[in-house]
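Incident log, structure service

09:12 report received: a user says their structure output differs between two submissions of the same chain.
09:20 pulled the input from the user's history:
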Amino acid sequence: MAGGVSGHSQVCAAAAAIAALLLICAPRAQALEDPTRPPASLGRSGAARSPASDLVLQSVIIFESGSAALINGELVQLGARFGNARLVKVSESEVELLIGNARRTLALFPGVDKRRAIRGNDGGVR
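09:34 re-ran on a clean worker, output below:
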């Protein structure tokens, strides 16, 4: 093609323009928090903190030979001690710690209130 732009050059130019347009229009990625990440207070130097304060249940592990929980980044077996607390119960969504004579429940999803759905006579869920 004398005096003109070749077809290959036009395709390359169009592809470059589309790529530039996509980069300009692409939404910025939002940083997502990792729910299994230990709390920010874990590992900070300074005054010793009580294990009973600022406890975060990150995961529960239930298997045939026993159960465990990941609390503040530390794996705690059922019956084992975690600071001045003892892990006394593990369920699918929460654990129970015994601290002295007091029991403290840690929920895996503390803001979620699970309830059974109630079906009405019309078949709808209430």
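09:41 both user submissions now match this output. Likely a transient worker issue. Closing.
09:42 reviewer note: The helical segments are 7-25. Residues 57-107 form one domain.
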